[in-house]
Amino acid sequence: MNICVFCSAADLDDRYTAPAREFAELIGKRGHTLVWGGSDVGLMKVMADGVQENGGRLVGISVEFLSAKARENADEMVIAKDLAERKAQLLARADAVVVMVGGTGTLDEATEILELKKHGLHIKPVVLLNTAGFYDGLKQQFQRMEDEGFLPLPLGELVFFAENGADALAHLEQ
Hints:
Elements: E1 2-6, H1 14-29, E2 33-36, H2 42-53, E3 57-63, E4 76-80, H3 83-92, E5 96-99, H4 104-118, E6 126-129, H5 136-147, H6 155-158, E7 160-162, H7 165-172
Helix pairs in contact: 1-2
């Protein structure tokens, strides 16, 4: 399975990197491909290292202005002209999407993917990996959106909240 992972390119502390390493190891050992932003820094590097070290493939989709940070030994690397093209390429190459911890770029990717799914423009499973309760507030906001009629489909059909990588992967492999 080609699993697109949206996550931070920042260097983060162990409460985020340790669970990411575990998730990456699972992806690699189960023979899946990581489709990711292509950067060889921060949490993106942690994920790529873990997948590659455990036998998985790497398909990176970087962007021109970040191409100097692209991972050199990925199995495949695409350089998109801008962020919009990058997001489209990531989704096109994925069978499923996992949103990990990240900043505004990760949040932008997550909301776009969910908006496209809401409108039926893709039916790929989307998981928010809620490491260390990072997305508790967002989960609460989504629940309010559902409760107050802002979502045209049940929240559970739009996104699955997983507390760890094993639960995320189990959901995707169903």
